[in-house]
Write a structure and sequence with these properties.
- It is a single chain.
- The protein starts with a strand and ends in a 9-residue tail after the last strand.
- Helix 2 (39-43) links the parallel strand 2 and strand 3.
- It has one domain (3-185, 213-239): NAD(P)-binding Rossmann-like Domain (Rossmann fold), CATH 3.40.50.720.
- The protein is 41% helix and 14% strand.
- It is globular and about 50 Å long.
- It is an alpha/beta fold and 248 residues long.
- It has a seven-stranded parallel beta sheet with strand order 3-2-1-4-5-6-7, with helices on both faces.
- The protein has helices at 12-23, 39-43, 57-71, 96-122, 150-170, 194-202, 214-225, and strands spanning 3-7, 27-32, 47-51, 76-79, 133-137, 177-182, 236-239.
Length: 248
């Protein structure tokens, strides 16, 4: 049975992605920071729940150890876990504490978990030339300026470069590394700005005039991590309703 590590499984994109892989027969080791996931009652021992913070070194090590103990090897990694700043502060007022907190989880945690998992994947016996798949969840904020949450934009731009770096480094081992850039997705992170984005979407911000759903992102991740696109690496896939289009 193939298995995959997914961080940020408590809800939103992480939970939708975990469910899609579990429904397809995969084993999933999920990192949960706060609210427990309920997958264990539905999927039994095919889901392993690890409580921890991706920004913490010991928790990352425990996550990988739990996956290996249950499944023997790691076939995929999906880096979903991420936070927004607690306070949307103007760039000129942003605090170092907020920057450090966001970067620790979104960038540093993602970087060093990927490093840890990549070392394990290199030892896998390849199947059709592939030893494993890695997919990072970044954001349209990797390229779109939001001056009231600069630390978030910087962290997601870092994830985009991380994708390219690991894609370059791991290609020789048969480990594709790609990135999905979500647009405006209906999750807990966007609840506080729902009215703002409702109005923008209605006003024509997106060619596809609706909110994105966590399942939209999960389907893109699934394609990138199950062999549907084996000749793709270092790619950023915009799943954003067309937000990235420059229109006149």
């Amino acid at each position: 049975m193939k298995n995959i590590i997914i961080t940020g499984c408590a809800g939103g994109i992480g939970a939708a992605t975990a469910k899609l892989f579990l429904d397809a027969g995969y084993g999933v080791t999920g990192l949960i920071r706060s609210t427990p996931a309920d997958f264990e009652k539905d999927y039994g021992d095919r889901f392993v729940c690890v409580r921890g913070d991706v920004g913490n070194r010991e928790d990352r090590i425990a996550l990988v150890a739990a996956a290996k103990e249950r499944f023997g090897r790691i076939d995929g990694l999906v880096n979903v876990a991420g936070i927004a700043p607690k306070v949307r502060a103007d760039l000129l007022e942003m605090s170092e504490e907020s920057y450090d907190q966001v970067m620790n989880i979104n960038a540093k945690g993602t970087l060093f978990l990927t490093q840890l998992v990549a070392r394990e994947m290199i030892g896998n016996t390849p199947e059709d030339g592939i030893r494993g798949y890695i997919c990072n969840i970044s954001s349209l904020s990797a390229y779109a300026s939001s001056v009231s949450r600069g630390e978030y934009c910087i962290s997601k731009a870092g994830v985009s470069m991380m994708t390219k770096l690991f894609a370059d480094r791991l290609a020789e081992y048969g480990i594709p590394v790609n990135e999905v850039r979500p647009g405006i997705i209906a999750t807990g992170m966007t609840e506080k700005v729902k009215e703002k984005y409702d109005a923008l979407i209605e006003g024509g911000l997106l060619p596809i005039k609706r909110w994105g759903r966590p399942e939209d992102i999960a389907k893109a991740v699934f394609a990138l991590c199950t062999g549907a696109l084996p000749y793709v690496t270092g790619h950023s896939l915009d799943v954003d309703g067309g937000f990235h289009l420059q229109r006149l």
